[in-house]
Design goal:
The protein is mainly α. The chain has 4 helices and no strands. It binds protoporphyrin IX containing FE.
């Protein structure tokens, strides 16, 4: 069969494009990063699957938390001009808003950090760059989550 005939699927080839078959195999495209002898044999179990699922589920919950947050902070009761120390103190007097803000903090940080972990794994080519960028990312993430959690639970409206 010449390279311009109609294929068995009945779909005509793009003009000028090669039709690949047993006698005319498509060229192999190499993987962007090849496995070498140093590549660990064992995988990390189902961690990446769990991380993938977490991004979707946390994203759905974040839509509710973030849009609710924006509406309360920026739209209702006179908009952003009402936001100040007294407003925050009033909101955090309620366990409901403490838990809301805590969930938003944890989910946004873990979602954002996991997303950046993916970006680093995809784009930082040298193993040392990947290691250092992720070390920085994890340090910043843990630090921010700890500080934020501490602030939500130890906030004192009577501070002078
Ligand atoms: C508001 C609701 C949000 C939804 C529905 C959402 C949804 C998603 C989904 C489904 C992914 C995975 C994309 C993929 O695997 O190709 C993703 C990736 C990501 N998200 Fe979110 N997200 C939200 C909020 C946030 C927030 C608040 C942050 C930052 C703190 C964030 C940072 C990221 C980053 C850095 C990535 C990785 C991007 C990439 O892989 O190219 N997202 N998001």
């Amino acid at each position: 069969m010449s390279t311009t005939e109609t294929t068995a699927s009945g779909v005509g080839p793009v003009e000028g494009a090669a039709v690949y078959n047993v006698d005319n195999p498509a060229p192999l495209i190499e993987a962007p990063r090849k496995r070498t002898k140093k590549t660990p044999k064992s995988t990390r179990g189902n961690f990446e699957l769990a991380a993938w699922l977490f991004m979707r589920l946390s994203g759905i919950v974040l839509v509710v938390l973030v849009i609710g947050h924006l509406v309360i902070q920026l739209v209702l009761d006179g908009g952003v001009s009402k936001v100040g120390f007294a407003f925050v103190a009033g909101r955090w007097a309620s366990p409901w808003w403490q838990v809301w803000d805590l969930a938003m903090l944890w989910l946004a940080m873990l979602h954002g950090a996991n997303g950046l972990r993916t970006v680093i794994n995809d784009y930082a080519e040298r193993p040392a760059s990947r290691m250092w960028l992720k070390a920085l990312l994890y340090t910043a993430t843990v630090w921010t989550i700890l500080l934020g959690t501490l602030v939500i639970f130890t906030f004192d409206p009577n501070i002078r």
